[in-house]
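Researcher: I'd like a structural prediction for the single chain below. Treat it as a standalone chain; there are no partners to consider.
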Amino acid sequence: MRWRYIWASFPLVLDDADLLSDLPDGCDFGSTGRHTITDAISSILTWHPGPFRFVRLIHSCSYATTHNDGALLKNWLGVLARKGVEELVLFHPLSNTSAALPDIVLRISSVRCLDLRNWNFPSTRIICRDEGIFPNILELGLWHTDIGAASIDHILQYSPRLERFALIASYNTPRSVLIRSRSLLCLLFWNYIAQEIHVLAAPRLKRIILLPYSFGMNTAQGSSLAAPRSLRCSAIWTQESTSSIFSTPLSRCNRASKQSEASNLYLTVDDILYLNPPT
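Model: Treating it as a single chain, here is the predicted structure.
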């Protein structure tokens, strides 16, 4: 048992994919395999005192969400909130309906990087504005995740350290999105359907990356981007896919024509937008 004390003395790095190799011979990832892995995760989270440096759950969230009305996933998130997790990835298998993410995820104050895939994001109304949301988060990525416009606005305004926000392949994106953040550096909307993106207040914003969802739509109509004249950042409008969220070099906005080299960039009101790519 000595190894347990040594193991508990270091910050935890947990990836449930690593547990697949520990399944008994002849046991596939069916109901028995899922039960074995989720039991192992519960034991690890219980016995390790924290902190948790990195936790990635991509094979176990489906079972944890459906088992006992989601009580297992709520318990895991409660442990992560109490013991402190820095980087968290929660992946729910893609299906016709997204799973409801328990609102206790909003109480994980220690998280610095949060990656959520295939979820219904909980309403942030349970968090008082004075209390703030995710006080230490630097990067938030939402993939195939349904989230309301009010929750996006609330997160951006009241996550005081958030620098990178990505909304990816979220086809139920609100039609109009407000951007208000004192800390945001990079904004990525990839495969989105929002028709209006209004940057109202983002003094530190340096990069906007837009890749609109075009299947079955007239891409010539475009969507609108409005920002105050004081904004100094590079705006990127592209139809090409990207494998790296925040560092892929893409075409920059043409200042003279206010149009991108990659595709048309339509602005709601020209005289309130001033995009200044670095020279």
